[in-house]
Write a structure and sequence with these properties.
Elements lengths: L10 H10 L16 H14 L4 H9 L7 H11 L4 H6 L9 H20 L5 H12 L8 H21 L4 H8 L1
């Protein structure tokens, strides 16, 4: 089924209804990537990995589907970390005695993958590094529609283009490209 409209703004309600009813759709150059949950998670992962002190990005990663910590576990982590770097706190799993059993398992996997990724940073291009990390975290297993896979590939392509244009990774510029 194709839906034709006079203006892109007319699609806003239609696409919102499709999402609400869980109807898969393909909208080419209609929606910016920045508003899609998976892209927001990928941006958070990119921010966290490139700036270990970004507390908000780390919390978003811990809440993202590939880690999926419960809010009570996040509260325990933030209380433990208070004024310290969040990554340094979660990296020290011994300090996480207050987490639930499920939270400990999820965090252990997450930390193992991230530690490995940080050690591998200089072996890959920025695109490959982020993509391999996302895959190792299980990001692909949370894709529900083919369009989401296309979106993730578009995100990684944008990372690659950004690096090829400026030879530097600027997260703010990447965020602007996603809009």
């Amino acid at each position: 089924i194709a839906v034709l409209v006079r203006s892109r703004s007319h699609l806003t309600q239609i696409l919102a209804l499709c999402r609400q009813k869980n109807i898969a759709y393909q909208a080419i150059d209609i929606e910016g990537l920045a508003h899609k949950p998976m892209i927001l998670d990928l941006l958070s992962l990119s921010k966290a990995l490139t700036h270990l002190g970004d507390r908000t990005a780390w919390l978003a990663c811990l809440r993202a589907p590939w880690c999926g910590l419960k809010l009570s576990d996040l509260l325990s982590i933030t209380n433990t970390a208070e004024k310290h770097c969040l990554w340094a706190t979660i990296e020290d799993l011994a300090a996480m005695e207050s987490l639930s059993d499920d939270g400990n398992q999820r965090l252990s996997h997450f930390v193992r993958v991230i530690k490995n990724a940080l050690q591998q940073r200089n072996r890959y291009s920025m695109r490959d590094w982020l993509e391999k990390t996302w895959i190792a975290l299980g990001g692909q297993s949370y894709i529900q529609h083919a369009a989401e896979l296309d979106d993730s590939q578009q995100f990684f392509k944008q990372v690659e283009e950004l690096i090829s244009q400026s030879c530097d990774f600027d997260i703010k510029q990447l965020e602007r490209k996603m809009i």
